[in-house]
Specification:
Length: 707
């Protein structure tokens, strides 16, 4: 497929000799052209025409975007009127920090002073939440709305489903997580339910009528509770942009809008951008169609491919072709993977770093041997001067690292895990957040029920009755009068006192202590491992302390949760070194000197869950490509030969043999070095360095007696 490349309509402005723009010298010519495209310096500042920068991994897209923001500011744009949309919040803060440094380095007299911060940078969801709170009353929302994360949304759907009698309906009604996925897909892809089902969930088509009812009731429930789910943040925002008066007020806040990772936006996000800048003035988007990996959230690669033609005249398209990240042998191997992609916008990537060794495919006996090999290699790299935090272990699914995590913990090697089980998904953390959320929004039934059910003697129906006595008001004292079991009455009294205090509190910093006095005894009553859990809550309190208010804290956490899972690894201290474990999805846009990818076998990449539809398989291929293109110097693809499958047969484990991922074609293996792990490590093949057997023969013995 060919994307037309329009010549830039405005020449980039060379800096005058009086203002040597040092920061622009850090870029190559193509990057510089993209960073300065259409920007006219003050006093004739005007918004540049729309621009698409489409380029392969590691070509400096994010760097160019960062420099473009700096260049805008240096040329008179007001930082406070720039909107920078990124994939994750940490990317946004990293970019704004760099912009500030670049502007400072430019040592130019800035027309508006550098003191004005770039205050509008973040993810679509976070920016949406902020704009909706500001304009809530104009669109019929209460500005104190709660934000339901995915798990909360599932819980609410479950409640509604029960009310409608659908949970007891005929069997096989879709699970709550599937229901939410269908709802979300339909909203984000801007498709009606039937089209969404046909397209993505054909096995649920028979439930269309029930799902329609369910989603209608779900929307009612959210409104009654004054709660928005993630999808609502985009949905309300996009609807807001259809209302001319508010739309112009919102759009009027921004002169320049820049979007990174545009290939992973969905139809709803595209419509929001168009609402913010109907003619594309001041709009720059950056992305790589070969790295589109979010179609399960309805992202569509069409967004980036169709971007130029939305405007008249079409947006200019610029390309970058120099790869600065990977060594030549790594880049060559990455290219063999993506070259097999069925469609895509072909890019010729050239590496800047010729030297380096080929990536490795390491074959190991099983997952235990994989963990051993990974640890050995990581430690060997560290011996050679590569800090742990310059290395990452990536995986297709969060649970792939289970064995590795145990081994790392056992050996006291610090690590942080991104993606997968989040700190906030831990039950005790959710309890505390539910208390805070209910205090902020007395109508929040999901939060309220969670809190009420913690009390001794209160089950689901007593909880619902107790909540009903409040009728959504903040008159928490009424809780004591609900017809709860006698055992629960004193607890309800205590809870009522706590909630009233928190709701009326004017000192956010004192709220955690108060809450803990109430919650800690319940923690002991409801959970084991109390000591670790208390540590998690201390950590939550310290995150809370860095926020100005309860609302700011809750919004931030719902949208950008701290991702390290507390029970395995607390976030390391600042000066400590730690290994990064991450799902491939969460590794987007980042890079490490060394990258090890776990389980590069069929069944993991591509995942078993991919249905076999061509486009799903293509997305899995791009996932492997994204993983591999994170590496700068050292890339290892792990291939365990055998996996144990637990719980499949009564009484024990079974082994399956997994073939190498189909994305590593036989004819391309010359781009890799093939290693058997024991040959590489020098350890004997049967015994791993930790002295544990690499192969568990006991399981094999048990297996012999099974058909
Ligand atoms: P991805 O597709 O993974 O998001 P990207 O295209 O956004 O990658 P960057 O992350 O911006 O690429 O850059 C990749 C690496 O190359 C970074 O380490 C960056 O500092 C470096 N780099 C980019 N451009 C240059 C340049 N002109 N000179 C030196 N280093 C560069
Ligand atoms: Mg990037």
């Amino acid at each position: 497929m060919n994307v037309p490349v329009a010549a830039p309509e405005v020449e980039f402005v060379e800096e005058s000799a009086a203002s040597p723009a040092q920061y622009l010298l850090e870029l190559n010519e193509a990057q510089r052209r993209a960073a300065t495209f259409g920007i006219v310096p003050a006093p004739n500042v005007q918004r540049s025409p729309p621009l698409l920068i489409i380029a392969g991994a590691g070509t400096g897209k994010t760097k160019t975007l960062t420099h473009r923001v700096a260049h805008l500011i240096v040329n008179g744009a007001r930082p406070g009127r720039i909107l920078l949309l990124t994939f994750a919040r940490r990317m946004a803060s990293e970019m704004t920090r760099r912009v500030q440094r670049l502007c400072a380095d430019a040592r130019l007299r800035l027309p508006h002073g550098m003191s004005e911060p770039i205050e509008w940078s973040g993810t679509f969801h976070a920016i949406g939440a902020r704009l909706l709170r500001m304009h809530a009353e104009q669109v019929g929302l209460d500005p104190a709305f709660s934000i339901l994360d995915r798990a909360d949304a599932e819980d609410l759907l479950d409640l509604v489903r029960e009310d409608l009698g659908l949970s007891h309906a005929k069997s096989r009604f879709p699970k709550k997580s599937t229901c939410l996925a269908i709802y979300s897909y339909s909203v984000n892809a801007r498709k009606g339910l039937e089209a969404a089902l046909t397209n993505a969930f054909p096995w649920c088509l028979e439930w269309q009528a029930e799902l329609t009812r369910l989603f209608g009731a779900y929307v009612d429930a959210k409104q009654a509770q004054n709660a928005l789910d993630y999808d609502d943040l985009l949905l309300y925002w996009s609807h807001m942009m259809q209302l001319p008066r508010i739309a112009s007020e919102v759009a009027g806040r921004f002169d320049h809008i820049l979007v990174d990772e545009y290939q992973d936006t969905n139809a709803l996000q595209a419509s929001i951008l168009l609402g913010l800048s109907p003619m594309g003035a001041g709009l720059t988007v950056v992305g790589d169609d070969a790295q589109a990996i979010y179609s399960f959230r309805s992202a569509t690669v069409r967004n980036i491919l169709d971007f130029p033609r939305q405007f008249e005249p079409p947006a200019a398209t610029l390309m970058l072709e120099q790869n600065y990240r990977a060594s030549a042998p790594i880049l060559a191997a990455c290219n063999t993977v993506i070259d097999h992609a069925a469609e895509g916008f072909r890019k010729r990537l050239v590496s800047r770093r010729e030297s380096g060794s080929k990536p490795i495919i390491a074959m190991v006996a099983n997952e235990a041997a994989q963990a051993e090999y990974v640890i050995e290699r990581v430690l060997a790299n560290r011996e050679q001067g590569m800090e742990l935090r310059e290395q990452a272990v990536l995986m297709r699914a969060a649970h792939h690292s289970g064995q590795l995590e145990i081994e790392l913990t056992r050996r006291n090697i610090p690590f942080v895990k991104f993606g997968g089980l989040k700190f906030l998904e831990a039950a005790h953390v959710k309890d505390v957040l539910a208390i805070l959320r209910w205090a902020s929004n007395p109508k929040d039934e999901v939060a309220a029920l969670r809190v009420l059910k913690l009390l001794p003697g209160i089950g689901p129906s007593a909880a619902r009755r107790a909540f009903a006595t409040l009728r959504g008001s903040a008159d928490f004292a009424a809780l004591s009068h609900s017809d709860a079991p006698r055992k629960a009455v004193p607890h309800l009294g205590e809870l009522a006192a706590l909630m009233a205090e928190l709701h009326g509190s004017t000192c956010w910093q004192a709220e955690f202590d108060r809450l803990r006095r109430f919650y800690d005894p319940l923690l002991e009553l409801n959970y084991d491992a109390v000591f670790t859990r208390r540590g998690d809550l201390d950590q939550l309190a310290s995150i809370g302390g860095s926020h100005p208010s309860r609302t700011a804290f809750l919004t931030d956490l719902a949208l950008d949760p701290p991702q390290a899972c507390g029970t395995h690894a607390g976030p390391p201290l600042k000066d400590e070194d730690w290994l990064v474990l991450s799902t491939i999805h969460s590794a987007k846009g980042q890079e490490w000197r060394a990258v090890l990818v776990l389980n590069v076998v069929d069944g993991c990449i591509p995942s078993d869950l991919a249905t076999g539809k061509a486009e799903e398989i293509e997305e899995e291929r791009r996932l492997l490509y994204v993983a591999m293109t994170r590496a700068r110097e050292d890339l290892v693809l792990m291939q365990p030969l055998r996996f144990s499958v637990r719980g499949q047969t009564p009484g024990g484990d079974r082994h399956v043999y997994a073939p190498r991922s189909r994305f590593l074609h036989e004819e391309d293996l010359h781009a890799f070095e093939l290693l058997r792990a024991h040959e590489a490590s020098g350890a004997s093949p049967e015994v791993s360095p930790a002295g544990r057997p690499a192969v568990d023969l006991r399981a094999t013995m048990r297996e012999m007696w099974r058909a």
